[in-house]
TrEMBL record:
Protein's name according to its UniProt entry: RNA polymerase sigma factor
Residue ranges occupied by any RNA polymerase sigma factor 70 region 4 type domain in the UniProt entry: 132-182
Domain of life: Bacteria
Record has Cytoplasm as a keyword: no
Residues annotated as domain DUF6596: 200-300
Classification via InterPro entries: DUF6596 (IPR046531), RNA_pol_sigma-70_dom (IPR014284), RNA_pol_sigma70_ECF_CS (IPR000838), RNA_pol_sigma70_r2 (IPR007627), RNA_pol_sigma70_r4_t2 (IPR013249), RNA_pol_sigma_r2 (IPR013325), RNA_pol_sigma_r3/r4-like (IPR013324), WH-like_DNA-bd_sf (IPR036388)
Ranges where the RNA polymerase sigma-70 region domain occurs: 30-89
Keyword annotations from UniProtKB, A to Z: DNA-binding, Sigma factor, Transcription, Transcription regulation
Length: 441
């Protein structure tokens, strides 16, 4: 007798959730191995997707195999054989794989063995190649982010679109164009070395941190945070740290993300409203993530010292985040030390945003007047002209100085510049508070 429809539906739903979990774990390794074999990230990603479709079709009936990653790779390899057999570029593929796959009639097993041999190898090397290919400078920043989340994060086009609040066709086009750009530019599937590695690593780190930041402080929409993106970025950062254990700045980035992620439970109240850093309940911070972040920071500093290298931007930002993490209360924060770290970071980056953050630390260490003097020096910076945190910071300092009417104007301006609804509501409320305070004086 056939099982009830409800039982069958429940089983299929459970299997689909299992497939999603397997895909998130295995997608990067699967695509990396196929990309080395095919010498084409686009073709590798399509083969991996075909294997996923096969799993969705077969696993609900047959069950999840004991080694799902190997099952997916086997299916993808067989599809690769079919593609190579049909492909117009067979000669190049034959030379790369070292086999003549089309000169024999009964060659199915030989063909599979050839592809199997081509796809075998050091998966860590393959993953590193895939990371640098997805983040290649020939691509735009948006394309790097989308392709990285697709091939390394295992996200679907729809998931990426939802995460960044852009139409799904837009994301699909970015991914398609990214693959075409890599092919057109003849980008080799390989990891850079020497000076090229030093010049391209910052691009990879930037992509990962862009993903994390969009999750940590959403630039638009109704949500203050999108934790899924933070988790994806953390996973990518940890993978990269495992692939490049001697690179201090990789560990610096991981440290920064771990420490910042530790605050996420305390950053909103029960209604999802934002809670500013100094008002957060620090008992809700995730101390496991803090400890992991501090350990990664120690490793970054030690490696930089051993290699006689100066502390780089992500390591310095992690050290700043650690000042918050080590303080039991906001009052115990080493604000003077943090201001010094921001000064060091500003010298490296020449960034007005860093200078703005330094002004906040200076205000906490030496008073709001000292901070306001620094902020006022930034009001004409072109890159901050439409940056909502400039008037928001100025409004906060003015309010502390009792200049509530001026603070109200700054908060109102900041509210018009942000696209995040939660942040706009917070700034509007602060403007109202300042108006009330101004009216009572």
């Amino acid at each position: 007798m056939a099982p009830p429809a409800s039982a069958t539906s429940k089983t299929e739903s459970t299997t689909h959730r299992a497939i999603e979990a397997v895909w998130r774990i295995e997608a990067a390794r699967l695509i990396a191995g196929l990309a080395r074999m095919m010498r084409d990230v686009g073709a590798a990603e399509e083969l991996a997707q075909e294997a996923l479709v096969a799993a969705l079709e077969q696993w609900p009936a047959s069950g999840v195999p004991e080694n799902p990653g190997a099952w997916l790779m086997t299916v993808a390899k067989r599809r690769a054989v079919d593609q190579i057999r049909r492909g117009e570029r067979f000669t190049r593929k034959r030379d790369e794989m070292g086999r003549d796959l089309l000169t024999r009639r009964d060659t199915s097993q030989d063909e599979f063995d050839a592809v199997d041999e081509a796809a075998d190898g050091n998966i860590a090397d393959d993953l590193l190649r895939l990371v640098f290919t997805a983040c290649h400078p020939v691509l735009s920043a948006e394309a790097r982010v989308a392709l990285t989340l697709r091939v390394l994060g295992g996200l679907t086009t729809a998931e990426i679109a939802r995460a960044f609040l852009v139409p799904e066709p837009t994301v699909a086009q970015r991914i398609v164009r990214a693959k075409r750009a890599l092919t057109k530019a003849g980008v080799a599937f390989e990891a850079p070395t020497g000076e090229e590695l030093n010049s391209r690593l910052p691009t990879v780190l930037e992509v990962i941190y862009l993903i994390f930041n969009e999750g940590y402080s959403a630039t638009a929409g109704d949500d203050w945070m999108r934790p899924g993106l933070c988790e994806d970025a953390l996973r990518l950062g940890r993978i990269l740290a495992g692939l490049m254990p001697a690179e201090p700045e990789v560990h610096g980035l991981v440290a920064l993300m771990e420490i910042q992620a530790s605050r996420m439970r305390a950053r909103t109240d029960a209604r999802g409203q934002p809670i500013l850093l100094l008002d957060q309940d620090r008992s809700r911070w995730d101390h496991l993530l803090i400890n992991r972040g501090l350990a990664a920071l120690d490793k970054a500093v030690r490696l930089a010292s051993e290699q006689d290298r100066k502390r780089c931007p992500y390591t310095l930002q992690a050290a700043i985040a650690a000042c918050h993490a080590r303080a039991r209360t906001a009052e115990q924060t080493d604000w003077a030390g943090m201001a010094a770290l921001y000064g060091e970071l500003a010298r490296i980056t020449s960034s007005p945003v860093v200078e703005l953050n330094r002004a906040v630390a200076v205000s906490m260490a030496h008073g709001p007047e000292a901070g306001l003097r620094l902020v006022d020096q930034l009001t004409d910076a072109p890159t901050l002209r439409n940056y909502h945190l400039l008037p928001a910071t100025r409004g906060d300092l003015l309010a502390k100085l009792g200049r509530h009417a001026e603070a109200r104007a700054e908060f109102e301006r900041a509210a018009t510049l942000t696209a995040n609804e939660r942040e706009r509501a917070l700034l509007t409320a602060r403007a109202a508070d300042s108006a009330a305070a101004a009216g009572s004086t």
